[in-house]
Amino acid sequence: MSDNKEALRIEILKYLEKHSRVDLSELAALMGAEETEVANEMAEMEKEKIICGYHTLIDWDKTGVEMVTALIEVRVTPQRDRGFDRLAERIYNYPEVYAVYLISGSYDLLVTLEGKSLKEVSRFVSEKLSPIEGVLNTATHFILKKYKDHGTVMIPKKEPERMLVMP
């Protein structure tokens, strides 16, 4: 792959990561490239699974929908010849599971889970996650407030609270 093509791909990916709804012609103009060239690169990167999907970031707190997000640290026993992959696959196949990461530190996996209530998430952990053979223990952390998510600040900036003083 040429250096110019690689540089264009990286520019496209960085921009799309923050602005997935950008118009194709606008993106091409920003990249200084032809619209067809950008479209072809995006299609090729989708085919190669470099671009894995497009997501919309929603502030669910503003919708009135009750939702709880939990981060669950999971310590497991790696399996011979498969390491963490088989256990991770078993966990990510649950529809409640939003994401699974292999992490460093005292735990092995970080599972992100969304549910309707604390009780629902707790039930998932105790009835589905903890009984899996190879899971040694878990630690559940609930997200109480999001300040920044996927690079986007979720809290609007407050206007200064100083009063205007007239002379």
From TrEMBL:
Any one of the GO BP annotations: response to amino acid
Limits of the Transcription regulator AsnC/Lrp ligand binding domain: 72-145
GO molecular function: sequence-specific DNA binding
UniProt xrefs under InterPro entries: Dimeric_a/b-barrel, Tscrpt_reg_AsnC-like, Tscrpt_reg_AsnC/Lrp_C, WH-like_DNA-bd_sf, WH_DNA-bd_sf
One cellular-component annotation, GO: cytosol
Pfam family, one: AsnC_trans_reg
Cross-referenced SMART domains: HTH_ASNC
Protein name as annotated: Lrp/AsnC family transcriptional regulator
